Amino acid sequence: MKKTLSILLFSLFVLKGTYSQNSGAIYGTVKTSDGKAASRVTIQLSGKNATVITDDHGHYNIRNIIPGNYMLTATLVGYEPFNEHIVIEAGKSIALHFQLSESQQLLSEVVVVANKKTYVVASTSASLRLNTPLIETPQNISVATQQTIKDFGITGTSQMARLTSGITKGWGNENDFSFIIRGTYAWASLFKNGVGGVYWNQQSDGFMIDRVEFVKGPAGFMIGNSEPGGLVNEVFKQADGVKTKQVMLGYGSYNLFRAGIDFGDRFSTKSKFSYRVIVGGQTTRSFYDFYKSTRMYGVASLRYTYKDNSYVQLMANRMEGFAKADNSNNITLDGKNFIFPKTFNSIDPNAINGTETDDTYFRINNQHKFKNGWTLKGQFALVSGIWKGDGMYVSKFSSKFDTLYRDVWTGSWPTGLMAAQAFIDGKFTTGKHIEHSVLSGLDFGDSWYKGEWSAAYDSTWGSNFPLLVAKPTYNLNRDWVKDTTSYPGYKYGTLWMAWYGQDHIKIYNKFIITLAGRFSLTKTVATWDTAQVYDKKFTPRLGFTYLISKNMSVYTLYDQTFLPQTGRKEDNTRAKPLTGSNVEVGYKAEIKSRLAINASLFHTVKNDVLVQNPATQLYVQRGQITINGFEFGVIGNINKNIMVNFNYTFTDAKITEDPDPDMIGFPNYGVAKHVTNAMIRYKFTQSKLKGFSAGLGMQLTDDVSVVWAGWTDPKDKKKTIPAYTLWDANAGYDWKKISLQINVFNLTNQQVLVSGWWVSDDGPDGRGYYSGSISTPINFRIAFFYKLR
Fold first, then answer.
1. Which of 69, 70, 119, 402 is the least buried, fewest Cβ under 10 Å from its Cβ?
2. What is the pTM of this model?
C-alpha cells in the first residue's frame, strides 16, 4: 500500500513537473530593412490557431507551445513575408530576432492580399519607380485606395480630384476630362500604370482602378515628361495570383445604369500563371435636354511568375465612349442669376451626331529580383486613341438675350504613344550608419497628336442657326450644316530619350539626403514647320528629410522641370520647351498605419508657357507663370469606427513676366484660391447595426478665375465665378459577400456655376457676361457589389 502510494505521489510530482515544463516559448524583436522597430507585424505558427502582433518596439512573445516542429511566418504590408523553421523543446524558450525586407512587387498586390479596406498605404506602386517609403520621400504624394474610391461613389477619372489637395477638376463630363494640378492645366499629366506623356481621350472607370496616386510638384524624374504642377497615376487592377470573383451593378439619377465583372486567379494551385479580367460599361443621361453618353471598357492581364518576386506581365485595355449634346452652357451677367432654364440646351439634336472617345492600351512589363536584393524592372507600352465627331456652340446673342446664334464644328483628333523604360534599384551601405537606396534607368518615348476640324457658319457669324430662347425649335436639317470652313490639318510629335538616377542617402536612420537628376534629349516635329528641333536639358533634384520618428518626417525639396511643347502658334513659329522649378517644404505623418497626414508649402515657376485660344485652337507663348500655395490633407481611420478625408488647398497662380505688360497679374484660368473637400464616415462594428456605415461630405470652392490671358480684356482680369459650397451624403452596408453603397450629391439642390469663362464686351449693348456649366441638381448613385467566391 505504501509502495503504491509512493508511486502515485511520484507520478503526480512528475506530471506536475511535466505540466510546468512540457511547453515551450518563442520571443524576439522584428525590424524593418532600415533597422527600425517593426510594429503591427502579424506572426503565426503553423498548426497553432492563434496569432500575435508586435508592439510599438517590434517585440513579440508566444507562450505555451507544445513541443514540435513549426513554421513561423511574419507578414507586414509593404514587406516580404518572413518564414523560418523552428523546433520547440519542452521547457525551453527560443529567441528569434529577424529583419523584414521591403517588397518590390506592386503595392497594389500587397494591398489586395493584406487589407482591401485600407485607406492608407506606406509606399507608391512600382510604376512610379520610387524605391523609398512615402514617409521618407521629400515630396507631397498621396494615394487613394479602392476603399476610398468606393466610399466616395466615384465612377470615373474626372471625379477623383476631390480626394486630395492641390488638384481640381477642369472640364469634362462622363467621357473626356482634364485636371488642374497646383494651379495649372495638366493636359498630358494623367498616367496609367506609369505610362503617360499622351493625351488620353476616354477617362477610366472607377471599377477598373485599384488605386490612384497623386504626385504634387515636378515628377519628370520619376515617371517621364510631365508638368511641373504634378501628375495623376492610375493603377489598374491586374493579375496577382489571388482568387477574385466580383460583380458590380449600379443605378442612379438621370437613368444611370452601370455594370461590371472582375475575375482572376491562378490557372491551377501550382501554376506559375495567373490572370485577371475586368469588363464593364455605363450609360447615362443628364438634367439638361438631349444629353446621353455611354462608356464601355475591358482590362485583361496575364502574369507569369518564374520565381519569387520575379515575373513577366502582359496587360491590354480598351475603353470606348460616346456622348451627344455634351454641353449645356448657361448665361449669367452677375455669375448668379441665370438667363436660361437649367434644363436648356442650345444644341440641336437633329444637326449633330455626337462625339466618340476611344483609347487602346497595351503594356508588357518585367520584374526580376536578384539574390542580392537588387531589382531590374522594365516595360514597353503602345497607346492609341481618338476623339472625333461634331458639336454645336453659341457664337452670338441678340440684344435682349432672347435669341442666340450657333456654330457647328466637325473634327478628328487622333493620338498615339510608344514608350519603353528600364531601371534598376537596390541598396548598399558605406560605413556602419549610412545606407544608400539607389535608382537608375533609361526612358524612351515617341508621342504624336493630329488635328483636323471645320466649322459651319456664314459671314454674319452664325446667323444661319438662330434659336428663340422662349420657344426653341429644334429642327435643323443636317444638309444646312454641310457648308463648312475647314482649317489646315496639323500633326506634331515629341521623341525623347532620358537617363535618370537617384541616391537616397540615409544617415543614422534620421537624416536623409536625396540626390537625383535627369538628362533629357528631345526632338519635336510639326507639319507646319519642316525643321526638326532638338533640345537637351539636365534637371537636378535635391531633397532633405529629417525623420522625427519612424512615422513622422519633415522635408525640403528643390526640383526642376523640362517639358517639350508642341502646338501651332499664331505666328507659326516653333514653341520653346517649358522649363520650371519648384521649391517645397513639408510635413508627413502616419499614425498607427491607419491615418496619413500631409502638409506642404510650395513655390513653382513655369517659363515659356503655351496658352491656347479656345476660338482658333492656336497658341501664344507667355513669359512666366508663378504659383505659390499651401496644401494640407488627412485621410484614414481616426479609430475603428470613424473614417475621415479632409483636404485644403490655397493657390495663387498668375502671370509674373510677359512681353505684353497688360498680361502681368493675369490669374491662371480655372484656378480658385481656396478649395476645401471633406468627408467623415462612421461605421458600426457592434450591435445589430454591425456592417452599416454613413457619412457626410462637403466641397467648398472659392471664387474661380474665368479669364484667358490674351483673349480677355485686361480690365476684366479679376473676373471670377462666385464661391459655392456643395454637400453630399453616403451610406453603406457590408455583410459577408455583399456590399451596398449609396451616395447622394448636392443635398441642398444648389444651382451655381461650377465652370465657365468670362466674355468681355461681347454681349448685348457691349456688356460682358459669364458662359458656363451649372451644378447638377440633387442626385444619387447606388452601387451593389457581390463577391462570388
1. 69
2. 0.83
